[in-house]
Design a protein that fits this description.
Number of helices: 11
CATH superfamily: Aldolase class I
Strand order of the largest sheet: 1-2-3-4-5-6-7-8
Strand content: 15-25%
CATH topology: TIM Barrel
Radius of gyration: 17 Å
Structural class: alpha/beta
């Protein structure tokens, strides 16, 4: 084993705890408690996405979760669109990580990576990153992107304003769930990994991952960070949040120990 996954992080996305709460407009389940339980059972960071439409995480959740991660000496990964409103919030919050993602009001969930084929999108991202960095130099920034060659080339062209990318693993995860061929996904990820890590950037993964699809990636030391949310919250209905988080953490730790 290469040992790269010794530092692989498990980011637990707790957005869908808020989804359950917002469905009834109650005070439960507690997003803050979800952050506490996740960290206590092995999460290396908490990921939350504050959407413009506020369909799940609310502004008060952001402050509450930030307080928890500071108390527990953990990390906060703050997912946002590159809008004026959200840039200002990131500058004020000064989280450990900001992950810039695409966002459309009509989507059920994030449907893909940032459109780096559009020069206007790329320029807007550069400006957003520079502004966040200027206000909060310790905040690291990742971009949520696809893994194709053209996108990787564009990422590398703006590497000076970012610290990592997060690969959109949605199509890969669907193919795993349907027992379809996944080699083409893995091959593309390996090419992208070599390019990105060769430029000194972090190589992260997120979207749609389960225990099974995580294991395939961890087995070949693909990513240094995995952000997983929907499956964790869904599986927690049966197994509990702490047990589910610990199961995923064990998958990563088994890989890093060479088992």
């Amino acid at each position: 084993m290469s040992g790269l996954n010794m530092s692989a992080r498990l980011g637990v996305n707790i957005d869908h705890v808020a989804t359950l709460r917002q469905a009834r407009g109650e005070a439960y389940p507690s997003v803050k408690k979800a952050a506490e339980v996740s960290i206590d059972h092995g999460a290396d960071q908490i990921t939350i996405h504050l959407r413009g439409d506020r369909r799940h995480i609310q502004d008060y959740d952001v402050d509450a979760v930030h307080e928890v991660v500071k108390e527990k000496n953990s990390l906060l990964n703050f997912e946002i669109g590159a809008t004026r409103e959200m840039i200002l919030k990131a500058k004020a919050l000064k989280p450990d990580w900001v992950c810039l993602v695409p966002e459309k009001r009509e989507e059920r969930t994030t449907e893909g990576g940032l459109n780096l084929g559009d020069p206007k999108v790329v320029e807007n991202l550069k400006i957003a990153c520079e502004e966040i960095k200027e206000s909060s130099p310790l905040t690291k920034i990742s971009l949520f992107v696809e893994s194709d060659q053209k996108t990787m080339d564009t990422v590398i062209s703006i590497k000076q304003v970012i610290d990592a990318i997060e690969i959109h693993t949605g199509e890969y995860a669907i193919d795993v769930n349907k027992n379809h061929e996944i080699k083409h996904h893995l091959d593309q990820y390996l090419v992208a990994k070599k390019m990105i890590e060769g430029e000194g950037l972090g190589f992260h993964a997120g979207h749609g991952l389960t225990d099974v699809s995580l294991k395939y990636l961890a087995d070949i030391d693909l990513f240094s960070e995995y952000n997983i949310g929907h499956w964790i919250i869904a599986q927690s209905v049966f197994d509990g949040l702490g047990t589910t988080v610990r199961k995923l953490k064990n998958i990563i730790q088994k890989n890093s120990s060479g088992e």
